[in-house]
Design goal:
Belongs to the ROK (NagC/XylR) family. By secondary structure, the chain is α/β, with parallel strands linked by helices. The chain contains 13 helices and 16 strands. It has three domains: 5-73, Arc Repressor Mutant, subunit A, CATH 1.10.10.10; 79-189 and 362-401, 2-Layer Sandwich (Nucleotidyltransferase, domain 5), CATH 3.30.420.40; 202-317 and 325-356, Nucleotidyltransferase, domain 5 (2-Layer Sandwich). A hairpin with a 4-residue loop joins strand 9 and strand 10 (162-166). The longest helix is centred in the C-terminal third of the chain and has 25 residues, at 291-315.
């Protein structure tokens, strides 16, 4: 397979997203906006025209030379459902082809309940039924854990307490829609690649901090999943040999030292917060100037900076995108993080940009929906038969409006 093929997969989706977000555009406009060659845009728009996903419109006015032919979507009605599964809650969104969230819902969830998967099917089914399934091309699910094959969706997750749960099959049977399942940070990385800071780069490292610590890597325009879908376990890099016990069963993992639960435990150990208080109270203390609280976050920033420097030295990304629930306290992490990161990077990588994005909980679910929107053009077959089914529904939704 040609080396450039992964880039063409995501660029097809990006073309649809750009036309959905900004309206009709010429091929030259698309090449500039997506930072790819005019020849590639010509090739890919030819494919999209053949699939009846885009159409040629009127010519744009020109002050000289031949007027440019404008391209537009045949229909903007196609949408995808994205689901974030957390140990204690669900976030569900419907996302348009332009990546915008059209509606969302958050509700409580008990992942360790024997009826957890049945409850999940019921919540998603009700969400779909509230707007009708006609325009929905598929459902994407992002969760903390390992998913060996996105299109099959068998889940192992220590955070959820799930072992070999056939979630994809359960949801497909219950919803009668194509379903793809992926690690939540990988799903978020796809969203960054299509709609976020990673859009202008081919090598992107996405890092999340919060209850856990995760990473997703886009390399040469393609998601790196590893042998069994478990690439990116930044939180389980061993940091301290005699450190605290991690939920994975090992000691001294990065996540066991800087995850939100670890920070709260540190605060409770010095009676800074009470037994029923958590990360919100710890952050409020730091915001109010409490030096002990600020020191806890600063220590976490230092540990993250050193670990991330190792990842940057190893992977050599164009850019690092940092986000997650933990960035709400980033002002207390940042100084120690910056010092530790830059001092541990090799000289040639000290200029690697790190951008911190503001966080909203439904971004996880938006990432899961982005998986669906990218699936129709997955030439490597990561989504298996589900990719074909999503593509068929996408084409059918366009034909219905033509």
């Amino acid at each position: 397979m040609p080396a450039a093929r992964p880039q063409t997969d995501v660029t097809r989706t990006a073309i649809l997203a750009h036309l959905g977000a900004h309206g009709p555009a010429s091929r030259a406009d698309l090449a500039r906006a997506l930072d790819v060659s005019p020849a590639l845009i010509t090739q890919l728009t030819r494919d999209l025209l053949a699939d009846d996903l885009v159409e040629e419109l009127e010519q744009a006015s020109s002050s000289g030379g031949r007027p440019a032919r404008m391209l537009g979507l045949v229909s903007q009605d196609a949408t995808a459902i994205g689901v974030k599964v957390a140990p204690d809650h669900l976030a569900i969104v419907e996302v348009g082809i332009d990546g915008n969230v059209l509606r969302s819902e958050t509700s409580g969830f008990d992942a360790i309940s024997p009826l957890a998967t049945s409850a999940l099917v019921e919540r998603v089914r009700d969400f779909v039924a509230a707007d009708g399934a006609g325009r929905i091309v598929g459902v994407g699910v992002g969760l903390p854990g390992t998913v060996a094959e996105r299109g099959i969706g068998i889940v192992d997750s220590t955070q959820l307490g799930w072992n070999q749960v056939p979630l994809g099959e359960i949801l497909r049977r219950g919803l009668d829609l194509p379903v793809v399942v992926e690690n939540n940070v990988n799903a978020l990385s796809v969203a960054e690649q299509l709609f976020g800071q990673g859009r202008a780069h081919r090598n992107v490292l996405v890092v999340t901090i919060g209850n856990g610590v995760g990473a997703g890597l886009i390399s040469d325009g393609a998601m790196v999943r590893g042998r069994a879908g478990g690439a990116g376990d930044l939180g389980h890099i061993p940091v301290r040999e005699d450190g605290p016990l991690c939920q994975c069963g090992n000691r001294g993992c990065l996540e066991a030292i800087i995850g939100q639960g670890a920070l709260v435990n540190d605060a409770r150990s010095i009676r800074l917060v009470g037994p029923q208080e958590g990360i919100d109270e710890l952050r409020s203390l730091a915001d109010g100037g409490n030096e002990d609280a600020r020191e806890i976050f600063a220590h976490a920033g230092h540990q993250l900076g050193r670990a991330l420097a190792g990842a940057v030295n190893l992977l050599d990304p164009d850019i690092v995108v940092l986000l997650g629930e933990g960035v709400q306290a980033w002002s207390h992490w940042t100084a120690a993080f910056d010092r530790a990161l830059r001092s541990a990077l090799v000289p040639g990588k000290r200029g690697t940009p790190v951008v911190v994005e503001q966080w909203e909980d439904d971004r996880w679910a938006q990432g899961a929906a982005a998986l669906v929107l990218a699936t129709p053009f997955d030439a490597r077959g990561v989504a298996g038969d589900q990719g074909r089914l999503v593509r068929e529904r996408l084409v059918a939704s366009m034909e219905a409006k033509s």
